[in-house]
Design a protein that fits this description.
This protein is mostly beta strands. The protein contains 5 helices and 23 strands. The protein folds into 2 domains: 113 residues; 194 residues, no CATH class.
Length: 367
Amino acid sequence: MRAREAQEAAEAGLEYGIAWASKNNVPWPSVTGLTLDCPSDTGCPTLPQVTGSSTGEAYNIALEYYRPSATSDFIRVTSTSKGANDAAITATIQVYVKPGGILTSEGELPPPVVMDGCMTTGGAPNIYPPWNDIDSDGVKDPNEWTDANGNGIVDSGEWIDTNSNGIVDNEIGIALMTSHQETVAGSFCLDYCGPGNSCDASAPGTGHAHLDLNNGLLQNDQLFPNDSIWDYYFDVSLAQFQAAASTILDTQGGLYWVTSSGNWTGGAYGSATDPVIIVFTSGCPKPTGNTTVYGILFFYQEDACEVDFMNGWGDVIVYGSIGVNGGIEKMNANLEIHGVGDGSGGIQTNIFRPIDAARLPGTWKDF
């Protein structure tokens, strides 16, 4: 009877462990750490004690989270129950699960700014594109090509192909993405400074503006899935996100659904290891005071940031991405947006919280 109770307790612990991993990032002990032992390690969930329904015996639960590698997208959850008064009464159950379900593959590592419209700026905001240090030299190489003979052509032997993909290495990614062309009806659609132009308003291709892309690439004419910028970022519906999110905006990492169009309190939102995803459903609300955001800010109302100008964002740093359903008017100075993995100390990999955890068939085991 106690063996059956121990089995039931282990099953209860497993369900608890899976439910927790479906809403939280597992806080691995290090970037390369593969195992988290609970309750002893830092950041573990609070494990409840289970009481047997027949004997009244109390059972303590231990959980182990394990990933085969630091880049694995699935984890093994193991639950072990032991009698509180007799540790010989024990049972263990494990299963592999895949947390996720919130972002698309593009939304996991998006450009710093993604728009479904045009842009104007005021002052000199900065966008820092994603950076993949292919050659590990610690230098952001926009294009790994040395024009040794000065002929303006990439000649054999002048270019570097570290990853052997047959393309000249370009370590710096897309800084600004829009569904629109650079010019619309004969007028500039985008206010930006193109690569190498040092924000010279008279230089060709700069969009005659002051937004510095810091050698990042510009992606025009982006085709969003289903013509929806929401579907570019998110792998869930608006209703599913709302159901999983908190309606009370907080500085802790997590998902937030904000219906107010009023300004929001400045501060530090999320962290490099536990970012936020904040969806503003109405208007283009501004943070008040010095603000640092780790994560994604998404403005859902169509063209709201054209009517409610994106000024008043001074002394704001975003490590992640700003998504706008429409265009942006008067993005102002002192705003910095750093892409995921730009080497600045911000978000380096996809560590946004999941909203579910799918069990992998055939991996359940008890012993």
